[in-house]
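User: I'm curious whether this sequence folds into something compact or stays loose and floppy. Could you predict its structure so I can see for myself?
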Amino acid sequence: MTEVLTARPSMPAAIAALRSALAGGLDPSADPARGVVPVPSGQFLLMPAFWGAYAGVKVATVAPGNPALGRPRIQGEYLLLDGPTLTPLALLDGVALTSVRTAAVSALAVDCLAPPDASRLVVFGTGPQAASHIEALRSVRSVREVVVVGRSPSRTAEFAAACDARVGTAADVASADLVACCTTSPTPLFDGALVRDSAVVVAVGSHEPHVREVDSALAARATVVVEAVETALREAGDVVLAVSDGALAASELVPLSEVVRGVAALGVGPRLFKSVGMAWEDLVVAATTYEAARGESR
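Assistant: Here's the prediction. I'll summarize afterward.
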């Protein structure tokens, strides 16, 4: 019988599992391409993956008009399967899984790329991903100050108070050690020239090639790390548009797996991690959550 797992995945366990999977040889470029079907109210997403003893698929929807109706913008479920037989094993909340795995991948990148003493975090956004990123980045660095930048003054103030943070502006990136972009903005959130050479920026807001949260000025200065090069060139607007502008060469993109394994050549200047969210991440975190619920460990 398929188990229904209601517990939210553990952030520290998710970060550790993603690190272990990449260090152990998991190849993100082997992921099937995300299935995206436009529908009148938004998008229907299908994300299958196979890894080790497990397989799985996330079925999700993106409905931009939902927040105005009091419903989540993203909804979905995750079905975890036994790898050899493809027998269903467990059903997980796709929204909770996405929230944790996205921030966990960002935290893994930050842990590999940021100075050990990075302590000042600027977060763009006030939604679930912004909250998850604050939690995740606090788990890999001793973050002493969090600054939140949002569109709605009242919502931003409320969110900042809940996260023990203060409200700021885009100009705060000039003194940030870490910047997390967790929005649905189709255009850059700040001037990339303001980012310090020692800073790490993560951008997770989109998997569409025509929108971006960071500008070409930052991409031109930064070491740009991605989950998988081919996927980034297909889905990551922050990368696609910078390449189109001539600010970034596709050959300069650095796979996260090489960073985790310590074989990547990292240049001077800022580091930018652009994530589009991939199916292998869902599967690794879902499998780890399933094993934890059963009292198993890798």
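Summary: The domain at 3-97+280-293 is CATH 3.30.1780.10 (ornithine cyclodeaminase, domain 1). The two ends are 23 Å apart (CA to CA).
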